[in-house]
Amino acid sequence: MIKVAFIGAGRMASAMVRGLLKTGHFSPPEVGCTCGDDPTGPQLASSAGITYEPELKNLLQDSDVIVLACKPQQFNSLNAEIAALAKGQLIISILAGIPLARISSRFPEARNCVRAMPNTPGQIGAGISAYASGHTLDNHDEELVQVILGALGQVVATPEDQLDAVTAVSGSGPAYVFEFTAALAEAGVAAGLPPEIASRLARQTVTGAGLLLGQSVDTIEELRRQVTSPGGTTQAALEQFNEDRLRDVVRHAVLAAKQRSIELAQG
Questions:
Q1: Which residues form the Pyrroline-5-carboxylate reductase catalytic N-terminal domain (predicted)?
Q2: Total domains present in the chain
């Protein structure tokens, strides 16, 4: 009997499915998926051992939770029968830019609707997802949300009016880290390193620093101070960052991303 039904079977849905099965909260027969006109659903079903069901009625007839994981632009084209089939179920949407008002309007008979913003490190279980609900979740549904989003990594609850900021910080944030890593590698080449060595050094430095940041009890500022000897090479670089107003650049980028998130939510 399918208890958790995924509408969409792309990378994030696949990561959630594998995380759920790995934790043992659900068994393969309790998880199902469908997809659009592409092979992702059958591929996910084959690799994870879950059920692929092209017919919504069969997929949702016994489910308790529906996870909307299709492309945001596919939201308006979802089969009209899904609203009736979702009666009494919990809806969890990971569709960027689709506000709770639109989700609730599409699923008026759902028992509750949740809007979540995960990020791409969730593909390896190292993500963080923020979520907001249409109305207060009861204990059972709160646990379901924590379990399902927790398959991607950490989970934090926020008011919906903060989700645009969440999108700008953690949703888009991995791209900022990748951009910085690319810049660091390019700078290494400019400093005289072969490209392949510069790339390897930059990637592992960012990866290692991230792991240290995640495991250390020290503040971010303290970790930075631990690398910075007075009058040394790191201080010279940080002074240049300060002169070039790196923190202003990052703030402006995050605010631009937040504004775009607001615009997308308004349609």
A1: 3-97
A2: 2
Q: Does 113 count as an annotated binding residue?
A: no
- Is 69 annotated as belonging to a binding site? yes
Contact 95, 75 (CB under 8 A): yes
Q: Are residues 45 and 73 in the same domain?
A: yes
- Answer yes or no: do 196 and 94 share one domain: no
Give the CATH number for residue 88.
3.40.50.720
Whether residue 72 is annotated as binding a ligand: the answer is yes
Q: Is the pLDDT of residue 77 over 90?
A: no
Classify burial at 107, counting beta carbons within 10 Å of its beta carbon; exposed 0-12, middle 13-18, buried 19 or more: buried
Q: In this structure, are strands 31-34 and 127-133 parallel, antiparallel, or unpaired?
A: unpaired
pTM: 0.92
**234: its two tokens:** 């790191």
Residue 107 shares a structural domain with residue 234: no
The answer to whether residues 24 and 128 belong to one domain is: yes
Radius of gyration of the chain measured on its C-alpha atoms: 21
**Domain residue limits at 202:** 171-265
pLDDT per residue as tens digits for the range 80-131: 899 999 999 999 999 988 999 999 999 999 999 999 999 999 999 999 999 9
DSSP 112: E
**Which residues sit opposite 68 in a β-bridge?**
7, 93
Query: Per the structure block, which two tokens stand in for 45?
Result: 């079903």
103 is in an annotated binding site: no
Final residue belonging to a domain, choices 119, 135, 159: 159
- Residue 25 and residue 149 in one domain: yes
Residue 71 annotated as part of some ligand binding site: yes
Q: Is 3 annotated as a binding residue?
A: no
